[in-house]
Known about the structure:
CATH superfamily of the largest domain: Glycogen Phosphorylase B
Number of strands: 13
Strand order of the largest sheet: 3-2-1-4-5-6-7
CATH architecture of the largest domain: 3-Layer(aba) Sandwich
Number of domains: 2
CATH class of the largest domain: Alpha Beta
Shape: globular
Amino acid sequence: MQKKVLLVATVQSHIGQFHKPLMQLLKEHGWEIHVAARDNLAEKNGLQLEYPDKVFNIPFQRSPFDRRNIVAYKQLKEVLAENHYDIIHCNTPVGGILGRLAGNKYRKTGTQVYYTAHGFHFYKGAPKQNWLIYYPIEKWMAKYTDKLITITEEDFQRASQRFKCTTCRMHGVGVDEGRYYPVDDAEKQSLKVGQGFSGPILLNVGELLPNKNQKMAISAMKKIIEQIPDATLLIAGNGSEKDNLETYVNEQGLEDHVRLIGYCTHLEDYQRMSDVLLACSYREGLPLNLVESMLSDTIVVATKNRGHRELVDDGVTGYLVDLNNAEQMAEKAISILQAHTKADQMKQAAHEKGLLYGFKSVTKELKEIYGLTD
């Protein structure tokens, strides 16, 4: 009998961006795949869900206190009542809580409930209120969870020691090595010229939200162009901060050096022609854009947070800098662009580490979690 899985998340783009290796693997093993999430794909410039057999547009909201989640919860329960699932695989904070609560009754009839934690809000150095609010919730929700899947070592250690459920560790959700790979200097230059660039390119990737802190990258460019006047910063993503960032670029007189290029479905093209990735976030779980850069030989300069520390060995696979220290970020970026021998060593070390987070590695881990055999 064909097995069936329901992937639950707050928004459909989460499934499309972060669960392609899982869906591809399950399709290869003959599973039927359903998705329950709010349809936000129109905001993502044509992002598509390639693999699901059915998609349920459930109006989940990011805030757990939004009253519309009551309606979403009722709709999710209807989906579960009309279908028998072998596994309900929950993701994102709201999808994770509502999915596990709605799915609990079906565990009595053999359904397994999984939850992938893409980065707990409680971690070493997190605000005290995060520990007071989120830690008790996750500890309580563990009793509704058959398998808790963590993607960072810190989260794995804490969950396996303190939560009463089976805990697994994965190296992220997988990055496609077939899309993200390095090119030689000649091809990199050809790609730049094809897009109208001649000098070094710095890249910043992520939703245009306050947490992503793109202003730091823009401020760093003020220092970078003093020494490398033909450098360009490309900011990929969309979000509520777009107008504020454009205003800031103009205020800094950087219109000729900073471009906001929107949400990109072909980000690999920009990764291959970029020289440095600037990652400025205050908080991260395990950011895919860093792995994409590492696989593309784009050297990372990132702020010190737990997700960046998980991936970047300072001075070996990239550089870590203090939050909001744009001058320090600029210094590291300039050193990369000017010190070619050191940069080559860093690229190799970063690429080797990035492969641990690639599709091939993550697919092996998913096979074990789902109990699949060849």
